[in-house]
Amino acid sequence: DVADGLFKVSVSPLALKRVSEAHSYVQKLIEEERVVYGVTTGFGSLSSKMVSKNDAEKLQRNLVRSHSAGVGERLPERLVRAAMLLRLNTLLKGHSGASPETVSLLAEVLNRNIVPVVPEHGSLGASGDLAPLAQVALCLMGEGVVTHRGQEKSASQAFAEERLKPITLGAKEGLALINGTQMTTAGACIGIVEARRLIESFELASALTIQALGSRTDFLDERIHLARGIEGQTLSARSLREKLSASECTNRSNRVQEAYSIRCIPQVHGAAREAISFSEKIVTAEVNAATDNPLLFPADDAVLSGGNFHAQPIAMVLDLLLIATLPIGNLSERRVERLLNPTFSGLPPFLTNKSGLNSGYMVSQYTAASILAENRVLAHPASVDTASVSAGQEDHASMGFTAAKKLLRAIDNLWYVAAVEALCASQAVDLAGVADGLSPATREAYKQIRSRVPTLIEDEPIGPQIEEVKQILRSIATTRGR
Length: 482
Hints:
Oligomer: single chain
Structural class: mainly alpha
Order of helices and strands: HHEHHEEHEEHHHHHHHEEHHHHHH
Helix content: 55-70%
Distance between the termini: 9 Å
């Protein structure tokens, strides 16, 4: 909700106290002229280069400016805001050394909806999301480009309009702002939320299909799913039973059992639910973790260099989420085949009464198949890749942010596949003449679809219809998700 700009953030006094203690500890380290990575040394393979305490502030400014090396299309504002929130949460752990003023400004920039323009390319997911997060730090310095009040402008202009004062980075603050997994983790958070909504939407679309085809529903009997004992499967079966409750359209088929694309919905969707639950456990830990380097432990007078910035755990669950959601789309496309093919549906070919003269929804299946082909390419794991950079000092990478971008692309694709099924199922409901017998849970969705996409009588452009239904499904899922 913060990522979507629906809620503002506030920082508790206790959290600010932790921040202040860590910041004071950094000042102590400088006064004692202790050798601390990124405070009195250079970065990466330059860590053996000592930096005078008189250059502590310049070191941090140079870090942020030099690491603002991203290129390409801008990332979605939702993703950037989520990353800013997660970075704020990390700083509040009191292991980073940022000043209370810097932390407060980051919170205020979020609340004023000043969003840094962050290019999509630049992160290896090791030593954190350096290039993307550097753009956020650059914004706090009053530099770079942002979006604000619906316009793109300089950060300095946005700050002036909001009467905010940019920060002058102190010792370790640049490193504290950019050294972490927050852009990757933001992608994982959004991906998990969207994946849950997608499953609900596919189950809604499949419930419409089941009723349009008059399918048997004994495959949803709770005893079947309890006999296997996989919670996700049981939940999906229950979800479908609820969506089909009080329907007068099911069990019209004379088939002994349904095809896998219908009968195995709980098993396939349930596997995705299990993957999401596992991923959520890992991501929740990462959201609440201190992920920069070095970490400060003021109470122990300790500065420890480690690798919490390495996004391997998140990269792997991002890959898992993409792989887990792909079969849901594959199953949906096979149900579309059963709707369009008169051999399976008993309805007019391609769901048009004037087939031959009209092609009906024939090519909507092509669209779904094309999208799923792209998703199968995207499903190649990013986390098996790596890179060696910084003169061999940083000699392994997770490619976590690549995994995040792939997942978000694939999920957006899947909304279209769900829309194709819901659109075709609604047309099939009309042609089968069973609209009045739909279950209460699906009747409302059907009515929303028909309020914006009337029954197809003559051929017309189908793409805009798919776009409309996609928005309807997203709206329904978002409303239920809250």
